[in-house]
Write a sequence for this structure.
């Protein structure tokens, strides 16, 4: 994998971040979600609602050269919005982003991570130690609530 750089998102990142997330949803989730669900998910990540998230969550960005290739967020004890550019999937970037968010949670003394996984990503998270809690239904489609205890340092 190319040399990666990480930094926290700012409001100035909203347009490329929105583009990355919407592209990833449209490409990666097409096998498990219908077009209506994909459109609804993409609407959540339009620049305006995404700006509010940037202002209220810890959102990490990952760059390969100058290109935004991945993102993950932390809100409370939830890992949120992990997306990797489809061209970079399967190369370990999702694992790296998840580990960085988990470390941020440990530093905040958060004992357990929760997340809402797409059907597409459920096996990915299970391989990282996340356990199934329940299947949940939303207007955007079904999602899997998962959890993982963290070893919080005293």
């Amino acid at each position: 994998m190319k040399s990666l750089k990480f930094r926290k998102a700012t409001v100035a990142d909203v347009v490329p971040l929105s583009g990355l997330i919407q592209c990833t949803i449209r490409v990666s989730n097409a096998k498990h979600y219908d077009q209506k669900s994909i459109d609804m998910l993409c609407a959540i990540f339009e620049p305006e609602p995404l700006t509010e998230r940037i202002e209220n969550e810890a959102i990490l960005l990952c760059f390969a050269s100058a290109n935004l290739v991945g993102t993950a967020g932390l809100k409370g004890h939830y890992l949120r919005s992990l997306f990797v550019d489809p061209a970079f999937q399967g190369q370990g970037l999702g694992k790296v982003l998840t580990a960085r968010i988990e470390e941020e949670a440990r530093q905040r003394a958060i004992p357990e991570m929760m997340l809402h996984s797409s059907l597409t990503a459920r096996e990915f998270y299970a391989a990282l130690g996340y356990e199934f809690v329940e299947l949940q239904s939303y207007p955007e489609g079904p999602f899997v609530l998962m959890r993982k205890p963290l070893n919080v340092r005293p």
